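Project standup — Tuesday

K.O.: blocked on the structure for the chain from last sprint. Re-posting the sequence here as requested.
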Amino acid sequence: MVRLSTFFTLAILAVSTMAVSAHSVQPPHTQSVMELEQHRLFQADSHRLLQACKNSAQARRLQERNVARRAATLENLQARRRLGGVQLDTPAPTTQHQSSLAIDNVADVNASDLFGSDVKCVLEPEVTEGPYYVSGEFIRQDVTEGQQGIRLYAEMQFVDVNTCEPVDDLYVDFWHCNATGVYSGVVANGNGDISDASNINNTAFRGLSPTDEDGLVSFTSVFPGHYTGRATHIHILGTYNGTVLKNNTYSGGVGAHVGQLFFDQDLISKVEATGAYATNTQELTLNANDNIYSESAATGFDPIMEYTLLGASVEDGIFAWISVGVDMRMAKSVSAASTITTNGGVANTNSMGPPGGMGSGSGFPSGSWGPPPDSDVTQP
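H.V.: unblocked you, prediction finished:
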């Protein structure tokens, strides 16, 4: 059975003044009068830009291509699953991001009904990159590295709200924790087994890839787990004008668009009842209790990914997507917890650092990664 929503979501990653840590139990954030006024003005301007985009010829043409492409992608993924392997390396709580459509094959329904024909314009504020961002990750789309979990094929599209055109050649960082709530690439209190020094060299569930001419980028991963104080989520960071290095990593550039993506609570519950997810002893935070999600939902934003199951069960895999409106005039400074170098992962002592007060959970799978090929990246 395949189910998903009948509308298309457009979210803006805007400049936010939230200072709350993305990986701790979150206290209420207090904004200054100036911050609130800046945020209000940005929202008003963004709504105006989005409405203009929604009614534009560019948006209609782009949506037609989206419907056709996503239908073809889903059919491809379903065919691969039926053949016995899932090599997926081809390119708020009250709102459900599934529909009542019950089908065994995407060919059985109209693609516009399945993927939506209308653009629903909603805004998402730009949020913190959190304390577990790692710079210098490999340019790649498959970030699974053989790790356990329910396969997730995630597609994101970036549209410039000033021109209504897709943003091409935007390098998108994509990262999240593993099935038991631990991030690779960072050794820190509250992030799995702090005695496992090899985790600094792990790169699973991290990667970046450029958007194409339709502003699209996709990643093959597994559905993220959870950890104390945060709802289940994925981080994304858009960067442009950087340099692709000879070891297939990306350096420099302007980090303009930072965001976090969420999932329907019903989907999370189904996933959490399976396999490695069910062994996670950390407390599960609901979307409604997550400050970053709640701040988005309270102002009409919708940072939840649309999705469909690849088969009758969630364990057959998930295809999820979202379109993200960005203002290419904006710029954002980010802080990396560590950096991939020729000597492997190196912690950045100047980063914002991990929070305290985290619950404990299963450690990230052990195993060191050798240093990447020769790189032009210097150690921090």
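K.O.: great, moving the ticket to review. DSSP finds five helices and 17 strands in the chain. The two ends are 49 Å apart (CA to CA).
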